[in-house]
Design brief:
The complex is a heterodimer of chains A (59) and B (243). With 59 residues, chain A is mainly alpha-helical. Chain A is 64% helix and 0% strand. Chain A has one helix at residues 7-44. The longest helix of chain A has 38 residues, at 7-44. Chain A is rod-shaped. Chain B has one domain. Chain B is built from seven helices and no strands. Chain B is globular and about 75 Å long. The relative contact order of chain B is 0.16. The chains are: A mainly alpha (59), B mainly alpha (243). The interface between A and B is large, with 37 and 43 residues.
């Protein structure tokens, strides 16, 4: 597969999309872990939801 | 399960826990197929291999507008129906929409340099998409500036609906004004002008990116619900009398 004289423009476009999408995925995954950890810490310190369910319980 | 059931954040979390792995897998498979088809697509007789940039530029450009559409529906949900997840949906979608808009602008710029001879031109299409990007950033800043989520939700919903005026301007800018950007070649009256060799990979990539958005949006909504639980518990903790 030859990308011709403008190969750098094509490669940079695909690389940039890959990097931004990976940053988005990483940011959302990290945020999830942070929120779950905060909820676990709060529960461990004795704060519970009014419903009595675990705050970090997703089911 | 009905739509009303999803109004309950706990049921929503339970549903997302079940479907997110499947959505992520479907996104990865479709992206792999789309990237393979994009790599194998022939060169265009005028643009040569740079036509491959279309397979990532166009899905990002479509999604930049689609995400604002999703946010506008969510804004209606906030203002009219006061749906508990409407604001969560809008707030979670904004950074994802901003990222897609940023990618549409930059990949368009990288495509424009070899084809038009310039990275940027202040024409109607490019400028209206840049305005959309700035509006995304403005909304994100608004949510961060107002601490009370319900107050921020109403202000953001109004701003989102006002900003929705820009979506038809972006779509029809190439018809209303004389622009450097080419007119619509896929979603147009009379059908697509693209050859199947380009149209099929483009549509596969568009579906793959749409699935990517749905996956990321549901995951970000789940995070936002958990963030609000953290906030509620922290306020509850702060209001408890200390021993």
């Amino acid at each position: 597969m030859s990308l011709g004289p403008y190969a750098s423009f094509i490669v940079w476009s695909y690389l940039l999309v890959a990097v931004v999408v990976l940053i988005l995925i990483g940011w959302i995954a990290l945020d999830y872990r942070q929120q779950r950890a905060r909820l676990r810490d709060l529960e461990a310190s004795g704060v519970t939801r009014r419903s009595g369910r675990g705050a970090a319980d997703l089911s | 399960m009905t739509l009303i059931d999803l109004a309950n954040p706990t049921r929503f979390l339970s549903l997302t826990a079940k479907i997110l792995p499947w959505l992520a897998a479907a996104t990865a498979i479709l992206l792999a197929i789309g990237l393979y088809q994009s790599a194998m697509a022939p060169d265009d007789y005028q643009q040569g291999a740079t036509v491959k940039i279309m397979f990532i530029h166009v899905p990002n450009a479509w999604l930049s507008m689609f995400v604002w559409g999703v946010m506008s529906l969510s804004a209606l949900g906030t203002l009219v129906w006061r749906h508990p997840l409407a604001d969560v949906s809008a707030k979670a979608a904004a950074p994802i929409g901003a990222a897609f808009t940023f990618l549409a602008l930059v990949t368009g710029s990288l495509w424009g340099r070899p084809m038009w001879g310039t990275y940027w031109e202040w024409d109607a299409r490019l400028t209206s998409v840049l305005i959309l990007f700035l509006m995304y950033l403005g909304l994100i800043a608004l949510w961060r500036a107002v601490e009370d989520p319900s107050r921020a939700a109403r202000a953001a919903a109004v701003l989102t609906l006002v900003g929705a005026i820009n979506i038809p301007i972006i779509k029809f800018s190439v018809d209303w004004w004389n622009t450097l950007h080419q007119p619509a070649s896929v979603l147009r009256m009379g059908g697509s002008t693209l050859d199947k060799a380009f149209l099929i990979p483009l549509l596969v990539m568009a579906v793959a990116f749409s699935l990517l958005f749905i996956t990321l949006h549901l995951a970000a909504m789940r995070n936002e619900i958990l963030r609000r639980r953290v906030r509620a518990l922290q306020m509850q903790q702060a209001s408890q009398p200390r021993a």
